[in-house]
Amino acid sequence: MTLTNSLEGRLGYQLRRASAVMMADLGRELADLDLRPAEVTTLLVIAENPDCSQTEVGQVLAIKRANMVPIISRLMDRGLVERRRIDGRSHALTLTDAGRTIADEALARIERHETRFTELLGAPDTEVLFRCLPVIRSVRSGDEEG
Amino acid sequence: MTLTNSLEGRLGYQLRRASAVMMADLGRELADLDLRPAEVTTLLVIAENPDCSQTEVGQVLAIKRANMVPIISRLMDRGLVERRRIDGRSHALTLTDAGRTIADEALARIERHETRFTELLGAPDTEVLFRCLPVIRSVRSGDEEG
DNA sequence: TATTGTTATACTCTATAACTATA
DNA sequence: TATAGTTATAGAGTATAACAATA
């Protein structure tokens, strides 16, 4: 396996590979909670924003309305999320007690997972990353909803 | 849309969102070449490693053997990649003239795309990213092939 | 008219297991 | 026995268009 790969010198490629590694690590950490990444993030956003709508959750997480449906459905089927009609077309989402328990456990694991990486990087470089990544994200996609 | 999102303080989340933005931007840049990201990277690796096997390409790009099959098939159907039997079980991959033309064009666009982001970040921060992202990638996934 | 949630559908990438034909 | 390529299949995330009910 002596292939060269000049993509190693590309930021987008490095970003994608690094992101994949962290996603895989997170997946392993959350596997036995039977939570997919998209579900955990949804759960955590609802946890800190009781009575939000599913459109709003989608907006902060960049998940399209249509794709929020099966995520919310599954979380409700598992008894982790409840919703209450607000005005006949929108719902207010909240966590159940079970949902809060799972969210707390997930958060603890995310903490461990994150710490593994930030300790490896060291505080100064971690700070640079937290400054740079939002800059990259600020480049408009042109395909945002709404 | 006044929701809070404490995931903004998570490295893995920032990485994923930033990666998604760059992928979307690359996708737009390559759209009219009818090349998907996985296909471009494959094309470029073959370009710089004539006579490599498809297993080798998969190894440097972290694409599983089974998933290389449809990628190579499509590139061959389009007349961009050729292969020559090596020993009855493996092939040597090379680009056709058409493949080289497309690869050159893709490379030029990737260059533009990358420059948009690295100029926004500035050289010093870009260097930090190129130092940090491989560190993140060095965390073993446990699910590598072979 | 615009918005919320929904359905249906398709695409891209990824993952696993099992097979073949070689070596 | 191990390897290269393949098949089949499933999962996860993402994308679009269109619809009903409501505001």
Automatic annotation (TrEMBL), chains A, B:
Q: Which domain of life is it from?
A: Bacteria
A Pfam match is: MarR_2
Q: Which Gene3D superfamilies match?
A: Winged helix-like DNA-binding domain superfamily/Winged helix DNA-binding domain
Protein name as annotated: MarR family transcriptional regulator
Name the InterPro entries on file: HTH_MarR-typ, MarR/SlyA-like, WH-like_DNA-bd_sf, WH_DNA-bd_sf
Q: Which residues form the HTH marR-type domain?
A: 8-138
